[in-house]
Specification:
Chain lengths: 179, 376
């Protein structure tokens, strides 16, 4: 991934209930804090849990005309199904971060597996996996500053929830940068 | 902010204080937000047993003086048609948000479509007109919601705000307009003696002032044909006057009602006519076509009904080809464009009806196929 580019296209894929739309919203909100334009779209099936669920985020210095991701700069895949759908992008140079708790581990260039869901469970709440994985993504790619994500967490959550999510975010960042 | 949220906040900005609805994907966020916000601002949120009751409650609330609205999607919108007809006949201002999803029937409940275009216009039986607006951005969701109420209140007519699922669920950054920044129009009430009030006596503009139930003016509203006083009237001359008046109040104010937006249309050879999210695909395709030396432009129909005949005709006569991309099988907008341009003009259709979005590449293919140089 190029550093300091003006536009980023991000795909967050997994299954319904993993909180990926919220991750997409938080990523976009962090970018808005940095003065960027953002569009976030979503795609999901008719089940509220399970099934392929997708959040797309575009961040741009300029006006965003077409709202869908066409050339992703980075992908997060939290399930085997979503990883199968997007792993080919790794071969084209797109970093693909995925969850080795729920997807089979792979080797290959640009494939970065971490046991996101297991670590989130060990932290005390597997539901924070979306924020933990977002931390890893933000630490690895210069899309938004991790400080901006921290501000978004402080604005969105209160007390224990804010603390837990902040811990998850920092744990995710630590996975990439080394804690 | 999400499109559905922007429409809700736009409605509240316009003064809406009554919401009755039955939640349905992909419009449910409107009900959810109203359930939280309405009680805090002196408004009313009613969860009804179905969509028939929802629109009935909206019509009743409006006649009692409230700016009232509901939100739904395909299956619910079908159920609302009968009472929407009542609102047309009774000239009751109201706004219905129909977030278009893929059909027929319950179809692909979470996927987008633009296949209710004809239902927006002709869903109700009998000769009648409503106004329908289609936003493409979150900002337009807010602005058109305000506009929808303004038009409904001014012209005493149901206005349907009909984004596709993409726009309803899309989130974009945008600054919410300050109070006073956008014009807000309130309905005109009667001012004369109470015993002389005639709720359907249209003045020069074709619109009668509307009193509120519960006030000094006592009046009658019926779905059957009625005279200027609101009471049943079977006289043929009266019936003709009523039907004409229901149409003329719109036809005489097209300048105020019909809104379009143009992108790069000054020097174009290829015209794209778009509504809703397809506008964004079209704009991206037109920009790419220009990079390849084909002068393409976009006419976005913010008002889809009454159809922008004049605007389409004025631009189409200057171009080599006209392309209409839309998310339905039958070409509901293309058919209207064809009607406006006559049989002599070829219109290229780009359609998607599998719940998938039309991409800029889909449209670009149609643009280059029509290019005199052939595919590039």
């Amino acid at each position: 991934m190029k550093a300091n580019q003006g536009r980023y296209e991000i795909i967050l894929a997994g299954s319904g209930g993993q909180g990926l739309v919220l991750s997409g919203m938080m990523l976009a909100e962090a970018a808005i804090l940095e003065g960027k334009n953002t569009v976030q779209t979503q795609s999901y099936g008719i089940a509220s849990r399970g099934g392929l669920s997708l959040a797309e985020v575009i961040i741009d210095d300029r006006e965003i005309i077409f709202q869908q991701v066409q050339e992703p700069d980075v992908v997060l895949a939290l399930t085997e199904e979503s990883l199968e759908r997007y792993q080919a992008l790794a071969g084209q140079g797109v970093p693909v971060f995925y969850d080795t708790t729920l997807a089979r581990a792979r080797s290959g260039a640009n494939l970065f597996g971490h046991p996101f869901t297991r670590i989130a469970s060990e932290l005390g709440n597997s539901a924070s996996v979306n924020i933990l994985a977002l931390g890893a993504l933000a630490a690895a790619c210069p899309i938004v500053k991790t400080e901006s994500l921290e501000m978004v967490i402080r604005g969105r959550f209160r007390k224990e929830a804010a603390e837990l999510n902040m811990k998850a975010l920092r744990m995710g960042i630590g996975l990439v940068r080394g804690a | 902010m999400q499109g559905n949220q922007a429409m809700t906040e736009g409605a509240i900005y316009a003064g809406a204080r009554f919401y009755a609805g039955y939640p349905i994907t992909p419009s449910s966020e409107v009900a959810e937000i109203c359930s939280r916000v309405m009680p805090k601002i002196g408004g009313i949120y009613l969860q009804m047993e179905d969509e028939i009751a929802s629109i009935a409650a909206v019509v009743g609330a409006s006649l009692a003086g409230a700016k009232a609205f509901t939100a739904t999607s395909g299956p619910g919108f079908s159920l609302m048609q009968e009472n929407l007809g009542l609102a047309v006949m009774g000239e009751v201002p109201c706004v219905v948000i129909n977030v278009q999803r893929s059909g027929p029937s319950t179809g692909l409940a979470t996927k987008p479509a633009q296949s209710d275009i004809m239902q927006l216009r002709w869903g109700r039986h009998g000769d009648q007109m409503v106004i329908a607006l289609c936003p493409a951005t979150v900002r337009e969701c807010f602005e058109l919601a305000v506009r929808a109420f303004n038009l409904a209140e001014k012209f005493r007519i149901p206005v349907i705000l009909a984004p596709d699922e993409i726009v309803g669920h899309m989130r974009e950054n945008f600054a919410v307009p300050e109070p006073g920044e956008l014009e807000v129009i309130d309905r005109r009430g009667p001012s004369g003696p109470v015993d002389r009030y005639r709720p359907f006596a249209a003045d020069g503009d074709g619109i009668a002032p509307l009193a509120a139930y519960g006030g000094d003016y006592v009046f009658h509203v019926t779905s059957s044909m009625h005279g200027p006083d609101g009471y049943s009237n079977n006289d043929p001359a009266n019936a003709a006057w009523r039907v004409e008046q229901l149409h003329r109040k719109i036809e005489r104010h097209l300048d105020e009602i019909v809104m379009t937006r143009r992108y790069d249309t000054d020097d174009m050879d290829v015209l794209l006519v778009t509504v809703g999210a397809t506008t964004r695909s079209g704009r991206a395709a037109a920009l790419e076509a220009r990079r390849r030396g084909i002068k393409a432009g976009v006419l976005q129909l913010l008002t889809v009904w009454p159809f922008p005949d004049r605007e389409v005709a004025a631009l189409a006569e200057r171009v080599r080809s006209v392309i209409v991309p839309e998310m339905n099988y039958s070409g509901q907008i293309a058919g209207e464009v064809q009607r406006v341009l006559g049989g002599g003009t070829d219109i290229r259709k780009v359609n998607s009806y599998n719940g998938q979005i039309i991409t800029p590449q889909d449209i670009l293919k149609a643009i280059v196929a029509d290019s005199p140089c052939g595919p590039i």
